[in-house]
Design goal:
- The complex is a heterodimer of chains A (278) and B (274).
- Chain A contains 13 helices and 2 strands; from the N terminus they run ααααααααααααββα.
- With 278 residues, chain A is an all-alpha fold.
- By secondary structure, chain B is an all-alpha fold.
- Chain B has one domain: MetI-like (MetI-like fold).
- Helices cover 73% and strands 0% of the residues of chain B.
- The chains are: A mainly alpha (278), B mainly alpha (274).
């Protein structure tokens, strides 16, 4: 099997390219500042002595900051991802199943308007957000950050869900309609289950986006609602980076997102509905 | 939603006609089109615009090809694919700040980075990853690709789930090769999803700044500075918010133009396949 052989080689190379930088982050978290500046070292105990300094800092001195930042990040990212995916699913379904017209605007124009919201560089709009949030007393609140991230994610979730629903065969919905199912029933019982991979993709995307966003978190939060990226950035001082602390924090930050990925991965692949259309 | 989208847009547009400056205390004045006139003679803006287009064009194309290849490879029913899917998703979950510092700065470091060290160990010349203008662009694209290929893979994997199995099985029965099936059945059916994935990724890539600021700082010279980085420098460092907003609007126009063109071409391509 030539194709299978090519596939395996490709995957192996990709796995190495993916893993090597991650491995580098792991070993860096066990190095001292002195181990890093001279020549690269690869193997713990063989060419450098691992220390737990970075992790010790994380679990003692910085523990309360880290916990607060992770809780904030989880609430803000989880909240905005769920809201943006639900709204995106609704709008995406509407855009594929119904024809809208508002003056000269059609469905495609509405979809384009959604995505155009993401075209302006964030630096250009962050000041406007700051002023608006100060007026609404949303500065340094998790609610404010959640609202902002939901707004940023919606254009993408709408597009992802629009594609997902476009792939649901119309015949399926029509035959259910002939059998007397209501519109809501068709949506929840037939279209939505088939679009589950799209929902998962949209959820993961929106979550990761909010999880790692830096600029708006920096401008819109100061103390109470700060997220992990801000804590990460604080490990980089004018004297240079605290490499071990930065790496340990990076790995800690990776864990919740990775757990979410592991939990959702099984829903990315559709099995059951294969052959539901006969 | 309207407040979130319209207010910043109008606010920034208003700024472009003023002389607002963060550091210089000058009375607020409306100065008409002065900022817009300055745009047309700004060579730095033009250079950063070309850089940005190179990053977007090169980076997104590579990420799409790799992401699609990985998604197809991981949709074939190999035993280890569940583990692989999770593994390949990981890079996009790593904070861009950490990616910039630990991978961009350390791994690609010319002095103490492992890549040059390993290259020299097998007898190859070290590469000037960040000090040569050409290679610095490549480095930015490589780091960006490491981080964002997973997103392409995720979206293409989702797209592959929506493709009906019957035509593929029928073609296989008829003796079509795997490549023919991909080329004539899977790829055309994936086109709408591909367009969405490319558009989403390109829109984010147009705003590239984090990696650049950390890895090369825009240098050497201006070789890797993007428009967003330029806007940031003009606005936040020099304090000239009004001109920064104007430059941001230039990027907005370019992005809208490119998006329209891309959607137009994609519609034509889809019509050809349909």
């Amino acid at each position: 099997m030539k194709a299978r052989w090519i596939t395996r080689t490709l995957l192996l190379v990709a796995a190495f390219v993916t893993l090597f930088p991650l491995y580098w982050i792991v070993i860096t978290s066990f190095k001292t500042q002195l181990d890093i500046g001279v020549t690269p070292t690869y193997l713990p105990w063989v060419d450098f002595m691992p220390t737990l300094d970075g992790w010790r800092w994380l679990l003692s001195e910085a523990r309360s900051d880290v916990i607060r930042a992770i809780v904030n990040s989880l609430i803000v990212s989880g909240g905005s991802a769920v809201i943006a995916t639900i709204l995106g699913a609704g709008a995406g379904y509407g855009l594929t199943r119904f024809q809208y017209r508002w003056r000269f605007w059609r469905n495609d124009d509405i979809a384009f308007w959604f995505i155009s919201q993401r075209m302006l560089p964030p630096v250009a709009i962050v000041l406007a957000f700051f002023l608006m949030f100060r007026y609404l007393s949303l500065l340094d609140t998790r609610l404010g950050l959640t609202i902002a991230y939901t707004g940023f994610a919606i254009p993408f979730t709408v597009w992802i869900m629009r594609d997902a629903f476009a792939q649901v065969p119309l015949e399926l919905e029509e035959s259910a309609g002939v059998d007397g199912a209501s519109a809501a029933n068709i949506f929840f019982r037939i279209s939505l289950p088939i679009a589950v991979p799209g929902l998962v993709g949209s959820l993961l995307f929106a979550f990761v986006f909010a999880w790692n966003e830096y600029l708006f978190a920096l401008m819109l939060t100061f103390q109470q609602a700060t997220t992990v990226p801000l804590l990460l950035a604080s490990r980089i001082t004018s004297f240079g980076a605290q490499w071990d602390q930065l790496s340990a924090l990076t790995l800690t930050n990776l864990i919740p997102a990775a757990v979410l990925g592991i939990m959702l991965e099984r829903f990315l692949i559709r099995g059951r509905t294969e052959g539901s259309l006969k | 939603m309207l407040a979130l989208s319209i207010f910043p847009l109008v606010f920034s547009l208003g700024l472009t006609f003023t002389n607002v400056n963060l550091f210089r205390r000058v009375p607020l004045q409306f100065i008409g089109l002065d900022n817009w006139a300055r745009i047309f003679t700004d060579e730095a803006l033009l250079e950063t615009l070309i850089n940005t287009i190179i990053f977007v064009g090169g980076g997104v194309a590579i990420q799409y090809v790799f992401g699609l290849a990985l998604a197809v490879a991981l949709n074939r029913g190999l035993r280890e694919q569940r583990l692989m899917r999770i593994l390949f998703l990981l890079p996009m979950m790593v904070s861009p700040i950490a990616v910039g510092f630990i991978i961009g700065r350390m791994v690609f470091s010319e002095g103490f980075g492992p890549i040059n060290d390993l290259l020299e160990a097998v007898g190859l010349p070290a590469v000037a990853w960040v000090t040569s203008p050409g290679m610095a662009k490549v480095t930015i694209i490589l780091v960006d690709t490491w981080q964002w290929t997973p997103l392409m893979m995720l979206l293409m994997l989702v797209g592959l789930q929506g493709i009906p199995g019957e035509p593929i099985q029928a073609a296989r029965v008829d003796g079509a090769s795997e490549w023919q099936i991909f080329r004539h059945i899977v790829f055309p059916l994936l086109l709408p999803v591909s367009i969405t994935a490319i558009l989403i990724r390109a829109l984010e890539a147009f705003k590239i700044i984090d990696i650049i600021r950390v890895v090369t700082g825009g240098g050497p010279g201006r070789a890797t500075e993007s428009v967003t980085a330029y806007v940031y420098n003009v606005g936040a460092k020099q304090g000239d918010l009004a001109y920064a907003a104007s430059a941001a609007y230039v990027l907005l126009f370019v992005v809208i133009g490119v998006s329209f063109l891309a959607l137009y071409i994609s519609r034509r391509v889809q019509e050809r396949y349909a």
